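ugh ok so i messed up the first submission bc i forgot one of the chains. this is the corrected input, ALL of the components this time, i swear. 223 residues overall. if the numbers dont match what u have on ur side tell me asap before i send this to the collaborators (the ones from the other lab, u know who)
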Amino acid sequence: IAGITQAPTSQILAAGRRMTLRCTQDMRHNAMYWYRQDLGLGLRLIHYSNTAGTTGKGEVPDGYSVSRANTDDFPLTLASAVPSQTSVYFCASSDSGGGTGELFFGEGSRLTVL
Amino acid sequence: GQNIDQPTEMTATEGAIVQINCTYQTSGFNGLFWYQQHAGEAPTFLSYNVLDGLEEKGRFSSFLSRSKGYSYLLLKELQMKDSASYLCAEMDSNYQLIWGAGTKLIIKP
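and heres the new structure output, hopefully the right one now
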């Protein structure tokens, strides 16, 4: 693993199903983030974690949950997927949560909810 | 309020210079970022400005005016590989990034 890895890269999901997007980084960064990117809109923050054991809500947290049991992993769970959650999801990390560190992004997970 | 404005799309010619503008409105400011995003790929960091002035990094330069809530990204000697979206993002008083929708730059031969 080099950098930040997301899985799956693409998924089609039936509405009402539970889905977890995985994110793992090997850079020992303290801060991690989940964004969604939709056409015509800027990246929108879903949840974030400034350090292992802590999480916070971003701009659009409803319908999503996260956990940060350790430094490396930051999974995003959709408890009951809805079509409006169709989007491209990016996980990111930085080495200075709450500071001004550059963000490193994963390659994205394209999710389609039918 | 927090609002990041940048043009939706721009077209330029290979070898030329292009300037992509970004304006922001916020009561707290902790810096302005520019990222590049090729189609279907992840955003990658280009620049960070927190003080007024021009930061030059090779063919790319970024400018900031805090009093005007204004930044621009200047790309020189354009190459076809510069065709991408350019994302402006402002770091607010809570150190969270507020992102613009991005400017799609099309480079023509």
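quick check: Chain B touches chain A through 23 residues (CB under 8 Å). that seems consistent at least. Chain B has a mean pLDDT of 93.
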